[in-house]
Design a protein that fits this description.
single chain, 242 residues, alpha/beta, 6-stranded mixed beta sheet, 11 helices, 8 strands
Length: 242
């Protein structure tokens, strides 16, 4: 019901840019350029958690990009999912374009906790992933969302935790739903998330998928992941990283 009300209210209430607050536009041209106007890059947090796949990001998590992500995620600005999906699709293309892709691209979102989804009234990452899949299909890439990951145990709020604390908090927290391994075998898996901070969430997601496949850590060497945004320091990594 909450998500439905947000959809309707967005049609009748005054609109302002989710990035800078400019009136009469949901996302202005300048903020669009910040979100998906840059070339997506390979990114890597320091320290890098074991098992982290190769990650590409569309934008730097600051200023307008940060505002747009928070508006969509925490304030229910659901109309921003399309622009965020376009940014994520660019990061997916950057990663999968460097390897041979057989079959469709399978976007596997890192799941939010049930508590977070209930509090927000929507699942922001799944919504962004669906928008990204649509953007990829419009560009000629077969793609679909395969939401096969779920929380297998409660985890603490990640806010305020350091890199090692986040890794310990998430270790063993995810699993693939029953039958999910068959869905994952149908194409090229790309893990997707809205934001990369320490990399603990993506590393745990890769572990869970690898375990379901019978090869723990199977994504660590050849897997791919894509995110909308990452910290400025991780966006400006060594050019020799491949």
């Amino acid at each position: 019901m909450r998500g439905w009300w947000r959809e309707i209210s967005g049609l009748v209430l005054p609109v302002s840019c989710g990035g800078c607050g400019r009136t009469r536009t949901e996302l202005c041209e300048e903020c669009r350029a910040e979100l998906y106007g840059k070339v997506p890059r390979r990114v890597r947090p320091v320290p890098e958690p074991a098992g982290l796949p190769v990650v590409h990001a569309a934008a730097v998590y600051e200023n307008a990009v940060r505002a747009v992500l928070l508006a969509h995620k925490e304030r229910g600005a659901l109309g921003l999912a399309g622009a965020l999906g376009k940014a994520l699709a660019g990061a997916v293309r950057a990663g999968t374009g460097q390897v041979g892709v057989s079959g469709p691209v399978l976007l596997v979102p890192v799941p939010s906790t049930r508590r977070a989804v209930a509090a927000r009234g929507h699942d922001p990452m799944r919504r962004i992933a669906l928008a990204a899949a649509g953007e990829l299909r419009r560009g000629g890439t077969r793609a679909r969302v395969v939401a096969v990951l779920r929380q297998r145990r409660p985890v603490a709020d990640q806010a305020g935790l350091g890199a090692r604390q986040r890794q310990a908090n998430l270790a063993g927290a995810l699993e693939v739903v029953a039958g999910g391994e068959r869905l994952l075998a149908a194409g090229r898996v790309v893990l997707v998330d809205d934001l990369l901070t320490t990399g603990a969430s993506l590393a745990e997601a890769a572990r869970a998928i690898g375990a379901a496949d019978g090869h723990t850590g199977a994504l660590s060497g050849s897997g791919r992941a894509a995110v909308v945004a990452v910290s400025p320091s991780a966006f400006e990594i060594n050019r020799n990283c491949q």
